[in-house]
Amino acid sequence: MVTDARSVLQRCDELARCSEEAGRLTRRFGTPALAQARDLVAGWMREAGLHPRVDAVGNLLGARGDGPRLLLGSHLDTVIDAGRYDGPLGVLCAIAVAERLRDRPLEVAGFADEEGVRFGTAYLGSALLAGRFDPAWLDRTDADGVPLRSLVGDIAVPPRADLIGYAEVHIEQGPVLEALDRPVGVVTAIAGQTRARVTFTGRAAHAGTTPMDLRSDALVAAAAWVLEVHALARATPGLVATVGELRVEPGAGNVVPGRVVASLDVRHAEDAVREHAVEQLLAAVEGEVLQANGAVACDDSGFPADLPRLASGAGHDAVMLSAVCPVSMLFVRSPGGISHHPDEAVREADVAVALDTLTAFVEARC
Ligand code: GLV
Ligand code: MN
Ligand code: MN
To answer: Tens digit of pLDDT for each residue in 14-73?
Structure first.
């Protein structure tokens, strides 16, 4: 029986061993490492009296009981060189609460893709449950040319109509709760987010023989644009904008870059500000919006009034689930505010508070 914080954290450690790469944690959508993590978690679901199944996109869903039910959970995929709590902590807290409340009908999800690292589109997992999986996404390919279509089954499934709510525990991934000296906080809203891809086309040439004034260097153009992205975000209150990925082609030290493909991630609590920024940043370049989601309000009514309230700058599966049911989120303090980094951490005592808070939330709902 795993119902206490220490055991949840031990499971986080165990899960962190399921990785695509030796020596660091990387577990992207559609990989054997994710399947291995799913198998491990499915076993823990069974121990908690849940019946696990895997759906068409690779979400792990463990349910019990009939009829309308509350969905708990988070995601099992990670970023590259990740910490071990972003996602897994929420899945494992949900299973621990399911174990504590063995008589309640509920369902726990371990979503297959919240990060969107592999195909540039976040929430592939929860989108399926919410009826928001866009069939056009199937034509996407990853950096190695593997089509998304080859990794999923039949996505023609109706949105879930049986969910009375979705509740997720997640690390805060920021400094607010630490500054307040509080172990957990309730999320009021999740910022909107746009992800895009921008291509810079120059002309590949010999690095030794091509004079500087006769070059068309795609990376130089991309670099100037990256600085523009940074400057616009700095000049716009509340806006965050990131170029986290650059693919330089052909990618050799002695060849002038002929083509660069860059990612763009733009977020703001107000949709109009984000949309305007994206328009500005894509105005003079060859860009394609891969995904845009508006800000989402969370239902904080099931949590005690004396817990602090805060907004989330990070994206969560709750964004997708909000299309089919009220969504609620509980953040756990992130020491140092560190996340998307192997130093990501949580305190056992804070996780204990999160477990008790989620238990009370579920008890009051079903
Ligand atoms: C997920 O962690 C995101 O906010 O990108
Ligand atoms: Mn996450
Ligand atoms: Mn993340």
So the answer is: 999 999 999 999 999 999 999 999 999 999 999 999 999 999 999 999 999 999 999 999
Q: How far is the CA of 114 from the centre of ligand 1 (A)?
A: 7
- Show Cβ contacts of residue 150 under 8 Å, excluding neighbours closer than 6 positions: none
The answer to whether residues 114 and 128 belong to one domain is yes
Task: Note the pTM of the prediction, 2 decimals.
Answer: 0.94
Q: Which helix (H) or strand (E) holds 240?
A: strand 240-242
Q: How far is the CA of 115 from the centre of ligand 3 (A)?
A: 5
Closest ligand 1 atom to Cα of 265: 5
Identify which of 115, 118, 119 to mutate to test ligand 1's pocket (most ligand atoms within 8 A of the CB).
115
Residues 6+ apart with CB under 8 A from 218: 200, 201, 202, 248, 249, 257, 258, 259, 260
Alpha carbon of 153 to ligand 2 centroid (Å): 24
**Segment 172-193, tens digit of pLDDT:** 999 999 999 999 999 999 999 9
User: Domain check: are 153 and 217 in the same one?
Assistant: no
Q: Which residues line ligand 1 (CB under 6 A)?
A: 115, 314-315
Q: Residue 245 has which token pair?
A: 């990925």
What residues make up the domain containing 203?
193-293
122 shares a domain with 18: yes
Same domain, 82 and 137: yes
* Domain count within the chain: 2
Give the residue from 269, 293, 317 where a domain finishes: 293
